[in-house]
Write a structure and sequence with these properties.
The chain has six helices and eight strands, in the order αβαβαβαβαββββα. The protein is of the alpha/beta class.
Length: about 200
């Protein structure tokens, strides 16, 4: 894996061994950040199921103000810390060694008050995590999201996520190979239509 663009462009990253984690491919990460480009500078970014940290590190490389990495697997945490150290990154991020559910229900010390962008990519064997994490972000933990936040879930193309999870509504679906990216935004009333249009325009 490599960092696609920004201050750390072309630097390489390690990936956790085995199939328990699913590193986002360089090509899919490039597609993701092409969409997020107008929003990434100065953003507060939450990388759930962070694994190697490739997505959050890409966000830092492209100008995100802060990244919170949430990961509980010891092997993945070890690789994440190695990647950050090898890149010389010492500020602008926090690592939270905890489950996503626990982190969303009771945000740990160091979490920003609001996140502009949230990315989640559970392991292959944890498909239930999508409903749990998106349900929390669209419900009990919605207070973690800025008013115009985007929540992006990477998933198998054949795995169809819901159009709505509480206050979150899907505004875009991108498919690439066997993978897909579902983009969710907060459905705000009564100006729901105007908000959704603005979110789509910002997203590209």
């Amino acid at each position: 894996m490599r960092i696609i663009a920004g201050s750390l462009r072309s630097r390489t990253l390690q990936a956790p061994p085995g199939l328990a984690t699913r590193p986002t491919t360089d090509r899919l990460r490039e597609t993701l950040f092409n969409v997020l480009a107008p929003r990434i500078q100065g953003a507060s970014f939450l990388d759930l199921y962070a694994g190697s940290g490739a997505v959050g590190i890409e966000a830092l490389s492209r100008g995100a103000a802060t990244v919170a990495f949430v990961e509980r697997a010891p092997a993945a945490l070890s690789v994440l810390r190695v990647n950050l150290a090898r890149l010389g990154l010492t500020a602008g991020f926090r690592i939270h060694a905890a489950s996503v559910g626990a982190s969303l229900r009771k945000p740990p010390a160091g979490f920003p008050s609001k996140f502009d962008l949230v990315f989640l990519d559970p392991p292959y064997d944890a498909e239930k995590e999508y409903a749990d994490a998106l349900g929390l972000l669209g419900g009990a933990s919605a207070g973690l999201l800025a008013a115009d936040a985007l929540v992006i879930a990477e998933h198998r193309k054949k795995e169809r996520l819901k159009e709505k999870y509480g206050s979150l509504e899907r505004i875009r679906l991108l498919e690439q190979g066997d993978a897909a990216l579902s983009f969710y935004a907060i459905a705000i009333q009564p100006a729901k239509g105007r908000f959704r249009l603005a979110a789509v325009q910002r997203g590209g």
